[in-house]
Design a protein that fits this description.
The protein is of the alpha/beta class. It folds into 4 domains: 148 residues, Response regulator (Rossmann fold); 168 residues, 3-Layer(aba) Sandwich (Rossmann fold), CATH 3.40.50.300; 78 residues, Helicase, Ruva Protein, domain 3; 48 residues, Arc Repressor Mutant, subunit A, CATH 1.10.10. Helix content is 45%, strand content 15%. The chain has 22 helices and 18 strands. A 5-stranded parallel β-sheet has the order 4-3-5-6-7, sandwiched between helices. The two termini are 42 Å apart. One of its GO terms (molecular function) is sequence-specific DNA binding. This is Two-component system, repressor protein LuxO. It holds the Pfam family AAA_lid_14.
Length: 476
């Protein structure tokens, strides 16, 4: 039975579903099959003993095991799961149970399971999760999500992606958009913070009004106040007429402050006053004006670090940090890479009036394995460069290498580093701690309880540390 790997290569696949409840097993198998590009060959075992017989007779690519259904082969859940894993011969093993038990999840993972999910199971979400696990664990025999049948998940308000991390983001945007409370967006450069701000505006009740964006890092300090709050006629040389600032222009709508941490400290105090009172005064004017805007901020830096360095006011941060949203880096959602690559290829091929095929399996594997320090923006630029440089056809490794100028420009120099350079390469403890915690949370699809259990710390510790961690600085 053929199925799609997400890398343009149909491969054979076999799935073993272990569940004592026949009705639940049938529903899970049917739901999962509908979410696949090609339905896998599903075998159902009603008990642990039945599963062992099937595992000895056949080779499976994926095993979904309901942990209570394995009780007939060992007294302890971990022992029964270990027996299944030993017979799996490299298959992806996913443990299932009806309750979100942290201890059960940790036990399953310690026994060799690759993941733990709770029942009931949604086919599309599980299919996406399987694809991510296949990429992470280097399993070539993987199941792909049928994004053509799930367009509402793969394309949402300007975002493209169907991974579980992006589905969680879409849910966040849907919940947060209707509020008027401030939103604090964080994420590495190129992850789409501006797209997130536009999505929050377009999905909310202020969509009919304006979204006004200001890049706080791109405007000179001496002009920033007038750009933000406006200027009165005669306030300074050249101010020949009254002019509204971004806040007034966004009245009734949304104000997006990109790279808010780059704002001058003196202006930060005026921004804080506006957030507290809802009033502003133009430069050179004494009158106060009432303004109703929803404020969305974004930064690619660690706000707590900026506070510690006295570059960002702590009181302003907590006034803005009401509804935090973190955008995951592209390297943490590898199943989205080819979805994005094909999206950009179709888009730019139409713009350039060229005809391109798809990606060879080798080129798709190279794209998926890349680290993408520039995230979606880097991938977008690469695909656009390929479309401009070549006339069409199937995209192969040679095309990728010719167009990948970022990797060529920043290729490591093969010179032994000095002792001081080696010391500089060591990350600060707080930065390493952030990366460890955020990677663990991503590995458990945002489930902080499971991530805490895997790290052997309490969930409250993660919540306390994440209170101010809104950005994961990239290591290296």
């Amino acid at each position: 039975m053929a199925m799609n790997t997400g890398l343009d290569g149909p491969l054979s696949g076999r799935l073993l579903l272990i569940d004592a409840d026949a009705q639940t097993a049938a529903q899970t198998g049917e739901s999962l099959s509908r979410a696949m590009l090609c339905a896998p060959l599903v075998e159902i075992a009603r008990s642990g003993r039945d599963a062992i017989e099937l595992l000895r007779a056949h080779r499976f690519d994926i095993i979904l095991a309901d942990m209570p259904s394995l009780a007939d082969i060992a007294e302890r859940d971990e022992e029964s799961m270990s027996r299944i894993v030993r017979l799996a011969e490299g298959a992806l093993v996913i443990a299932m149970a009806s309750g979100a038990s942290v201890s059960a999840a940790v036990g399953a993972m310690r026994s060799g399971a690759h993941d733990y999910v709770t029942k009931p199971i949604a086919g599309p979400a599980l299919a996406t999760r399987i694809g991510e696990l296949a990429q992470r664990h280097g399993r070539p025999r993987s199941l792909g999500l049928d994004t053509a049948r799930n367009e509402n998940v793969a394309d949402f308000a300007g975002f493209v992606g169907a991974s579980s991390a992006m589905q969680f983001l879409y849910e966040q945007i849907g919940r947060v958009a209707s509020s008027s409370a401030p939103v604090f967006i964080t994420g590495e450069s190129g992850t789409g913070k501006d797209v997130c701000a536009e999505a929050l505006h377009s999905q909310g009740p202020r969509a009919a009004k304006r979204l006004v964006a200001i890049n706080c890092a791109a405007i000179p300090r001496d002009l920033m106040e007038s750009e933000l709050f406006g200027v009165a006629r005669g306030a300074f040389t050249g101010a020949h007429e009254d002019r509204k600032g971004a806040v007034e222009l966004a009245d009734g709508g949304t104000l997006f402050l990109d790279e808010v941490g780059e704002m001058d400290l003196s202006l930060q105090s005026k921004l804080l006053r506006f957030l507290q009172t809802g009033t502003i005064s133009r430069v050179g004017e004494a009158n106060m004006r009432k303004v109703d805007v929803r404020v969305i901020c974004a930064t690619n830096r660690n706000p707590l670090q900026m506070i510690a360095e006295r570059k960002f006011r702590e009181d302003l941060f907590y006034r803005l940090h009401v509804l935090p949203i973190h955008l995951p880096p592209l390297r943490q959602r590898p199943t989205d890479i080819m979805v994005l690559a094909r999206h950009f290829l179709d888009r730019y091929a139409r713009e350039e009036h060229k005809s391109f095929g798809s990606f060879t399996q080798e080129s798709a594997q190279q794209l998926t394995a890349a680290d993408w320090p520039g995230n979606v923006r880097q991938l977008q630029n690469l695909i656009r460069r390929i479309v401009v440089m070549f006339d069409g056809g199937e995209i192969d490794i040679g095309m990728l290498d010719a167009a990948d100028i970022e990797s060529q420009a920043f290729a490591p120099v093969t010179v032994a580093p000095s002792r001081s350079e080696t010391r500089r390469a060591i990350l600060p403890m707080w930065q390493q701690e952030q990366k460890i915690i955020e990677d663990a949370i991503a590995a458990f699809s945002g489930n902080i309880s499971l991530a805490a259990a895997a790290l052997e710390i309490s969930p409250s510790t993660i919540y306390r540390k994440r209170q101010g961690w809104s950005e994961l600085p990239k290591a290296g």
